[in-house]
Specification:
The protein has about 240 residues and is mainly α. It has a domain at about 25-170: Helix Hairpins. The chain has 4 helices and 4 strands, in the order αααββαββ. It has helices at about 5-85, 90-170, 175-190, 210-220, and strands spanning about 195-200, 200, 225, 230-235. A 4-stranded mixed beta sheet has the order 2-1-4-3, sandwiched between helices. A hairpin with a 6-residue loop joins strand 3 (about 225) and strand 4 (about 230-235). Helix 1 (about 5-85) runs antiparallel to helix 2. The protein starts with 6 loop residues before the first helix and ends in a 5-residue tail after the last strand. About 15% of the residues are buried. The chain binds zinc ion (ZN). The site of zinc ion (ZN) has 9 residues, from loops.
């Protein structure tokens, strides 16, 4: 002869298992997302370092080109000065003065650019060890996460199997007349198809219940919330 358990107690035990199963499933679904987030962190740390290396390379190339240009501009400047010294025609002298002025502007611009590039190269060089350190740290964190995630996954799978077993053991105790309604609710909203009652209030929708309903719930009868339709029960530790 199977042991009779009052519906309110059956549903309270069922709800406990459904919530635990839901939590295990959520935890198991979270793990791959957390892993992806860790992998993304590593990818962006590596990108930051690669971007800095690229910037450094480009800045060095440009610095070299600017130094070559500066040499050419200085040579040009000297050539114009010589030509001006030798010029007897005032028109030629004036034309050379214009050339000298525009060369001077180019020289200033090139010198300024070289200074900017030197600063940029110094700053980027200084950043690279930090960026490399960040990659190392993120790699170590990823490795730790992978190890921990594997054992966490095993734990959660173990717990999940345990709670599914407990649910399978208690579900046959649902009174036949409420079985269909329970299964329908479970299929639709799983752990959200039941709710406990605390101080005459449905803890899911926060609506008050009648005194008569409260009495029935305290007697562990089958009662559903008139507002949200959930199966109600009084909390307990059994
Ligand atoms: Zn409710």
């Amino acid at each position: 002869m199977s042991e009779e358990i009052a519906p309110g107690i059956v549903f309270r035990r069922i709800h406990r298992e459904l919530m635990a199963i839901h939590q295990c499933n959520e935890g198991l679904e979270r793990l791959p997302r957390q892993l992806k987030a860790q992998q993304n962190r590593l990818a962006s740390a590596e990108k930051a370092k690669n971007d800095a290396s690229d910037l450094l390379k480009k800045a060095k190339v440009e610095q070299h080109q600017s130094e070559v240009s500066l040499k050419q501009l200085n040579a040009l400047n000297e050539k114009y000065l010589r030509q001006q010294d030798e010029a007897s025609d005032p028109k030629v002298f004036t034309a050379l003065a214009h050339e000298l002025a525009s060369t001077k502007i180019k020289i200033d611009e090139t010198e300024n650019r070289i200074l900017e590039l030197m600063t940029l190269i110094d700053e980027t060089n200084a950043k690279i060890p930090e960026l490399e350190k960040a990659i190392g740290k993120t790699k170590a964190e990823l490795a730790t996460f992978e190890t921990e995630a594997a054992s966490k996954k095993a734990d959660l799978e173990g717990l999940l199997a345990e709670h599914k077993g407990k649910l399978a053991a208690i579900e046959p105790k649902v009174p036949a007349e409420h079985s269909q309604g329970y299964l329908r609710g479970k299929k639709a909203t799983f752990q959200d198809s039941l709710a406990s009652v605390v101080e005459k209030t449905c803890t899911a929708c926060q609506n008050n219940i009648t005194t008569q309903m409260q009495n029935e719930i305290e007697n562990h009868r089958f009662v559903t919330c008139k507002s949200c339709g959930r199966i109600l029960y009084i909390p307990g530790n059994d």
